[in-house]
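Quick question, first post here. What does this chain look like in 3D?
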Amino acid sequence: MLYLIAEYFEFSGLANLIRYQTFRAGAALMTALILGLIIGPRFINMLRVRQGKGQPIREDGPQSHLAKRGTPTMGGLMIMIALVVSMLLWMDLSSPLVWACLMVTVGFGLIGFLDDYDKVKKRSTAGVSGRMRLLAEFAVAGAATWILVSETNTNLYVPFLSGHYIPLGPFYYLFAAFVIVGAGNAVNLTDGLDGLATMPVVIAAGTFAIIAYLAGRVDFSAYLGIPHVPRAGELAILCAGIMGACLAFLWFNAPPAAVFMGDTGSLALGGALGAIAVAAQHEIVLAIVGGLFVVEALSVIIQVAVYKRTGKRVFKMAPIHHHFEQLGWKESTVVIRFWIVAIVLALIGLSTLKLR
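> Answer (accepted):
Ran it through. Tokens below.
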């Protein structure tokens, strides 16, 4: 909104700063951070009053988690408010890329909210059926993919190799939707310990802020040998907003958590990262940068598949962060070590920009 206003006045005076994506990215981060910190306390109190007993805790989970009973969930709403306000203020709203990513963020957030609401209302960890949730997610992701492809193409670019890509044609629509849905659910599965998913999302968002900015510049993308996506630099502002909103949430989610993100936040954030990766045409790099999320999701898939076939468990408990808890690691140890892994993977992902 502010960009369009500044453009109307031809970026005169101080409004000239708004012309620059780097300035608006910093402003978006600070806006989301400050807004999140301001609304946080009252928002958490409201959730505590309305939810009463808070988020249901799995009885078959680690026994240490039973002490978290009564902690309110749906804290992702706080992230969503801070992020969306920041986006609407600082992004160029004339870009279809912006609206596609906004559609995924809000759409996945709404799906997650309905799931959280069902869990709290029924006092159950089941929530909305998995089939219904996936159908809704693919519907949102499919619509967003159609918009994104209209601004880019249907090629899958291979990292570490300059100019190499796989022309997927019509199959790209299904692939891109799978990336978005997969990212949303992978982050959702990672969100099982206080702060575990939040910081890796901040790290991944910061990494893709750099990637999106470089992909949106003709000079930088040509120098690095990465696909150029016109106006992709606007997504760096979205990434910065995600960072600010998540950091504000982490202030209240740090152990012992005063509020849980819930599916409302984890699905929205994961879906947003997936949409940004598709828009910037760095889908494979997302699997590297978000490798922690990938491992978390794979641990669940492997555990379920092997158990159904053999009746035996590969891990003591899935997702894999619970496996390490069962091995005797303290929750804080698991969280901090997983953060370190996320940082290393982000550095590897950034290296793909130059190692070609």
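The first strand starts at residue 155 and ends at 157.
The mean pLDDT is 90.
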